[in-house]
């Protein structure tokens, strides 16, 4: 069975600073990988996804993520954080031919200092 | 284009009661999945519906059941509610194996 670990429960960065959120997955085959963002009391918004091909994936809101098979990682990055990026971020893994059946990590709460 | 819509947004039920939550998928989507998100945790997959049948199921008891209608909308039913069922219930839709789009969720409180 697949699993996802997000090692950092909370991260605080200053506005304008760079950001990296860590995600490690466990899955026997090539995974489908996703990053979602959730604002308080809201649903999940898809930031970006990796299915195959180029291992550096660009998403919305200036986010990108890099798939590293050797490290079983899919870390999310942003070069300059804005105060509006404060939210909960979830990494998820899906499997081929299983549609939208996703396994999520525990999430990382991002706080942005002015 | 309306996205995934869920109703109601909030609900309070008493332990032992039954509850039904509803989901309308994004236009063009035919697959619906349900997730339970307890406070401070990531969402957990409950089950997935496609062509009006349950296709995949997570590690949830039979008290959790669902249905998908011909117009692709879906219901989640939970019987014999427990305090531990209090959570945000999220519906996600997709077209076949495509990316999942989530609704805003239904916040269920069991007292």
Can you tell me about this structure?
The complex is a heterodimer of chains A (114) and B (111). Chain A is an all-beta fold. In chain A, 0% of the residues lie in helices and 52% in strands. Chain A has strands spanning 3-5, 10-14, 19-21, 24-26, 32-38, 44-50, 56-58, 64-68, 73-78, 87-94, 102-104, 108-113. In chain A, strands 2, 5, 6, 10, 11 and 12 form a 6-stranded mixed beta sheet that branches. A 4-stranded antiparallel beta sheet of chain A has the order 3-9-8-7, with no helix packed on it. Chain A is globular. The model of chain A has no long low-confidence stretch (mean pLDDT 93). In chain B, 39% of the residues are buried.
Could you name the key traits of this structure?
heterodimer; A: mainly beta; six-stranded mixed sheet; four-stranded antiparallel sheet; 12 strands; B: 111 residues; mainly beta; seven-stranded mixed sheet
Helical segment count of chain B: 0
Oligomer: heterodimer
Give me the secondary-structure category of chain B: mainly beta
Tally of separate helices of chain A: 0
Q: How many beta-strand segments of chain B?
A: 11
- Distance from N terminus to C terminus of chain B (CA atoms, Å) equals 37 Å
Radius of gyration of chain A: 13 Å
Strand % of chain A is: over 45%
Largest interface: A-B, 25 and 29 residues
Question: Which spans of chain A of ≥5 residues are poorly predicted at pLDDT below 50?
Answer: none
Strand-residue fraction of chain B? over 45%
Gross morphology of chain A: globular
**Share of helix among residues of chain B?**
under 10%
Please tell me the overall pLDDT of chain A. Answer: 93
Order of secondary-structure elements of chain B: EEEEEEEEEEE
Q: How is the main sheet of chain B built? A: 7 strands, mixed
* Broad shape of chain B: globular
What sequence of helices (H) and strands (E) makes up the elements of chain A?
EEEEEEEEEEEE
User: Stretches of chain B where pLDDT falls below 50 for ≥5 residues?
Assistant: none
DSSP, total strands of chain A: 12
Largest sheet composition of chain A:
6 strands, mixed
């Amino acid at each position: 069975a697949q699993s996802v670990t997000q090692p950092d429960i909370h991260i605080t960065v200053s506005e304008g600073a760079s950001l990296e959120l860590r995600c490690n997955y466990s899955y026997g085959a090539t995974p489908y990988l996703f990053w979602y963002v959730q604002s308080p009391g809201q649903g999940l918004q898809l930031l970006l996804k990796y299915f195959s091909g180029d291992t550096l994936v660009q998403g919305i809101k200036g986010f990108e993520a890099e798939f590293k098979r050797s490290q079983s990682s899919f870390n999310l990055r942003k070069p300059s954080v804005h105060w509006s990026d404060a939210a909960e971020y979830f990494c998820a893994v899906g499997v081929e031919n299983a549609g939208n059946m996703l396994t999520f990590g525990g999430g990382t709460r991002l706080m942005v200092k002015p | 284009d309306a996205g995934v819509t869920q109703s109601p947004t909030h609900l309070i039920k008493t332990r032992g009661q039954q509850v039904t939550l509803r989901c309308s998928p994004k236009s063009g989507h035919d697959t619906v999945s349900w997730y339970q998100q307890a406070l401070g945790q990531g969402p957990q997959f409950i089950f997935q519906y496609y062509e009006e049948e349950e296709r995949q199921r997570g590690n949830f008891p039979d008290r959790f059941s669902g249905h998908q209608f011909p117009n692709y909308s879906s219901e989640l039913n939970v019987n014999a509610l427990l305090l531990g069922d209090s959570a945000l219930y999220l519906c996600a839709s997709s077209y076949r194996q495509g990316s999942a789009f989530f609704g805003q969720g239904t916040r269920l409180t069991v007292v």
